[in-house]
Amino acid sequence: MASGTKGVTLRLSNSSELITAASPVLSVTTVDLGRFNSSDTAIIDFVTLGFSTGMRVVTNSTNNTGVFTITSIQPSSLVIKGPGVMSPDTSTTLSLTGFLMEEIGEIVSIDGPSGSVNVIDITNLGSTAREKLVGIQDEGQVSMEVLTNLTTGSTGINQWKLRDLRQSGRLSFFDIRFTDQSVGTISEPSAYFFEGFVTNYVNAVALDDAVKTAITLEISSQAHFIAALSS
To answer: What mean pLDDT is predicted for residues 27-50?
Structure first.
């Protein structure tokens, strides 16, 4: 089904908003949609640590790769939805990182990710045609245009955070969430999730027009595609 542009969001979670947990008391089970569990809340208490519903979560579990989303939380468990079928994991080195995603407001347009791969020519004198290898994947950039809002600390706008990230050069985490499914207990729209730097933040002022800002994100990771989940 085609996806409309109305309601598409780009969200940010900078490095000061990450929540991590790493301990041998963590495990993964397939109860409900899938769960991350803590067998000892004196060591890992998800609520006390600050995990919350709607957070994106990644784990080092080799059985469960990709990006997950928290649907409900208790001190001893996180119920999550995400890619594929969850597999049990009782590894002694499990870790979780939660990303609190905050929408960037008043976006006019988004372009990207603009990924590509380098092509390596391995043609030699014995070749009968050009021979090539695919090189390292480059996820490229995401560019956006926003209606400029210069209010620092503005709730729901958060453009000032992108301005600060451009100045600090700090690696941050982003997602682009589409509208092909509603957000529900099981359902989740398609999205891209990636790490990157804010490399450009340019204000544009023109006669008889709104002040706008062009912002560029340089992707520094795999752009994880999160497939839509239907209820």
So the answer is: 87
pLDDT band at 47 (very low <50, low <70, confident <90, very high): very high
The answer for 165, left when phi > 0, alpha when psi is -120 to 50, beta otherwise, is alpha
83 lies in the same domain as 132: no
Q: Render pLDDT for 79-99 as a digit per residue (tens, 0 to 9).
A: 988 776 678 888 878 889 999
Residue 175 sits in the same domain as residue 191: yes
107, with CB counted inside 10 A (0-12, 13-18, 19+), is middle
Would you say residue 175 lies in a domain?
yes
Q: What is the pTM of this model?
A: 0.87
Q: Are residues 70 and 169 in the same domain?
A: no
Q: How many CB atoms lie within 10 A of CB 119?
A: 10
Domain termination residue (choose one: 101, 119, 136): 101
Of the pLDDT bands very low, low, confident and very high (cuts 50, 70, 90), residue 154 is low
d(CA 176, CA 178): 7
Q: How many domains does the chain have?
A: 2
Please give the residue range of the domain that contains residue 142.
103-226
